[in-house]
Amino acid sequence: MNGVLDVIAGACLVVGALLSLSAGVALMRFPDLLSRMHAATKPQVLGLLLVLIGCALRLREAVDITTLLLVAVFQMATAPVAAHMIGRAGYRAGLAREDLLVSDELRDADDKR
Amino acid sequence: MSGGRWRDRCVAALGLTVIWVLLWGSFTPLTVVGGLVVAVITLIVFPLPPVTYAGRIHPLGLLRFVTRFLRDMVMASAQVASLAFRFGHVPRSAVIAVPLRCPSDLGLTLTAEALSLVPGSLIVDADRKRGVLYVHVLGVESPDDAEKFRQDVLDLESRIIQAFGSPAERRVIKEVPA
User: Fold this and answer.
1) Would you say the C-alpha torsion B17, B6, B58, B117 has a positive or negative sign?
2) To pair with B77 at 20 to 30 A between CA atoms, which of A23, A42, A64, B116?
3) 3-class DSSP state for residue B130?
4) Distance CA B158, CA B164 (A)
């Protein structure tokens, strides 16, 4: 039983680490600030959750699992807020590359106001 | 002060106490009472703005929302990850305005949070008065994709309302076509 849990934990840790790696690569490769925000906030959320699940399966102590749970809850509650604040500030500062946007309905709405 | 306000405060105090106990990692009378004291003091010093919440949680709708949310998150994470490794390809994107059908504060916030956690979409701005979310979507190549995504957001909103909404909001969701 413990062997099976260890294998699942290992798989979770490896997949989580790979997702975090992809987030890092995307951060380097994506062309503008808004695209990079996707990479900085997203694959990394699932990556972190998988790493936490992997840790929980290995540690198996109530004390550790409650702490991991808190990490997950706070990460999921704060990541969107941070992404929104940076994205909004970046957009308003004109850092979104317009040549990469298929359509920009926020600019249209701003123009009307 | 109305009863609803007191209910909100009790829920907030309870939530803070649970976090306190989880942080200590042990469930003893000392941590529970200590947590309650800290929670009450926190709420007195930093009062929360009133949240108008007329709904209740619908277990079946919640289950449907959570399973679909997890599925979306896994699929979209894989999508963004694969986009990261497609060398020589510059991903295009779009900023899409999505007018929500039930723009209560809570509905707007929950939809924005859920959207932000799923890869590929990012809230650039929110118009609280008119209930419009401006979403930056990664990997949009054509206006058709943008239209499809707008529909996805409205579907997400209706799942959230089915899980948390008030009877009036649920009626609106059923009547107004997405």
Assistant:
1) negative
2) A64
3) coil
4) 10
Please tell me the predicted confidence (pLDDT) of residue A43.
Answer: 66
- Number of C-alpha atoms within 13 angstroms, CB side, residue A60? 7
The per-residue pLDDT for range B27-82, each reduced to its tens digit, is 888 989 999 999 999 988 988 777 666 677 888 888 999 999 889 888 888 888 88
pLDDT over threshold 80, residue A14: yes
Shortest CA distance from A99: residue in chain B: B92
- What residues of chain B, 103 to 142, have a C-beta less than 8 Å from chain A? 112-113, 115-127, 132, 134, 136, 138, 140-142
Burial environment of residue A70 by CB neighbours within 10 A (0 to 12, 13 to 18, 19 or more):
middle
Assess contact for A43 and A19: CB atoms under 8 A. Answer: yes
- Selection from B68, B63, B64, B125 nearest residue B98 by Cα: B125
CB atoms within 10 A of CB B127: 16
Q: Which residues of B touch A41 (CB under 8 A)?
A: 116, 122
B134 and B126 in contact (C-beta within 8 Å)? yes
Centre a 10 Å sphere on the Cβ of residue B52 and count the other Cβ atoms it contains. 11
pLDDT of A105 above 90: no
| A12 confidence band (pLDDT: 50, 70, 90) | very high
Residue B1: predicted pLDDT: 47
ipTM of the complex: 0.78
**Looking at the DSSP assignment, which residues form a beta bridge with residue A57?**
none
Bridge partners, residue B127, by sequence: B132
